[in-house]
């Protein structure tokens, strides 16, 4: 491996991607990564050059790399950091915020910050304990809150597009979980682009075909400081469990994750599902009497249920 | 476990089924197993009392148990053993045939035997080596030959139904493989019943919701002698690989296999797939000029390609 040469020049290769049969030096890898992102944006019709994008930024390698690439490609992309109030693992949320702030400052980019505890009076772990949802894991409540805050920020800020940095490992694990449970609602909505609906911005995942190690390699080779710890609440989660299975499959059969995910997208395109009344776009039939956001509930939306007394 | 009592009487339990939260003594387990089979036959509309059934018998625990249960339930079910000419593992094919013959003889049942080497001049391993299909594994060729021979026997013998003893572990592993590859043809056709098509009998899988350990327990508690070795060519196969993953999942979450498979059947029923021109029944548009069986090929069918010079 160490003696391997870049396929575009004679430099020593910095990364070898077995699934693509491609090894590249640092410089050509960084260029390849940016080009690939641009290709995915075009391939899935994610957004046009003049559209305003809000990037969900966690302070980790994926989201900071995504913001970096969109900035380099000349898109108008602001960042949004949501401080969840997770204090374990060396003050996880505040440490992550600091990475996001430094990243934005260094490039002169705009970062919006929302602090959940300031907005609702409670941190995510506190909200989760109080509701008792998801037993000992606050991930369900966290997802509800993040979704609400992001939607609100996109609408109030006039952004047409919400970009998240989910990578292939995330998407394949989620897909595996959804197929194991044959969760048709989730399967229908799992795509690189979720079209805008009434009261919701379009949602896109430009990194959905990058392996996690590819986004990590980009952040490292680009010298982007990021929070290396995983969220302390993710330990033992179902998602990590499926990721491990997929990693084992990938070792024996390089490309398994990509084929699984892209095969699904192709089957989806080819009519895997019967057309539903709705499902390929964000939405909800009703307006929440608490916050005014669309919801599928006839009463308060999940966010209001979680955050109100 | 050993102190556990049968839930229907006070006898010591012989089997505990975590996924069903059910533990039963030998006598009640055997009765439960037969009843469950009858329920599945009715639930999926597999066959009626007067229909003639041909059971594919391998000499293993699943197929001999199936034949035993159908016989006990009073169905008209003959057996069909295909000798594949596999001589490794202590003369695997001939040993299996002997188990099938003894089973039939003891019950006064009719067993048809087809010997592949006598019919085609070559054993399955020889056919596989000659064609070079499937590289070092004859399973692909074996499947083609068995399918052809079974179809032919069903048609010539006037059987309306072909019954195979695929269990839940088989079906879940196959489903996992098919979803990983999003093989839409296989997914469309994976069901407890594949309706009869032009030139093909109906195919049914009455054991598709029994765990492998349940069919094994039935054979053992019923004192049915069967070949315990797996086919020597299955070692290292993809199917075993997926079975191992599913077994690991099942340990942590009892019922995973069943939920995965039944969830798929429900999604299928609920319109997972867009209606295809065909696909829910056996068939082929053309007739093979070699053997006269229907085929999707415009020339010789796979069987004729594999067996002819």
Tally of individual domains of chain A: 1
Assign the CATH superfamily of chain A.
Answer: HUPs
Structural class of chain A: alpha/beta
Name the CATH class of chain A. Alpha Beta
Radius of gyration of chain A, CA atoms, in whole angstroms: 20 Å
Oligomeric state of this protein? homodimer
Note the run of SSEs of chain A as H and E: EEHEHEHEHHHEHHEEHHHEEH
Secondary structure blueprint with pairings:
Two copies of one chain form a homodimer.
Chain A: E1 15-17, E2 22-24, H1 26-43, E3 52-57, H2 61-72, E4 76-83, H3 88-107, E5 111-115, H4 116-120, H5 124-131, H6 139-156, E6 161-163, H7 168-180, H8 184-189, E7 193-194, E8 202-204, H9 212-221, H10 238-252, H11 256-269, E9 286-287, E10 294-295, H12 302-307
Parallel strand pairs in A: 3-4, 3-6, 4-5, 6-8
Antiparallel strand pairs in A: 1-2, 7-8, 9-10
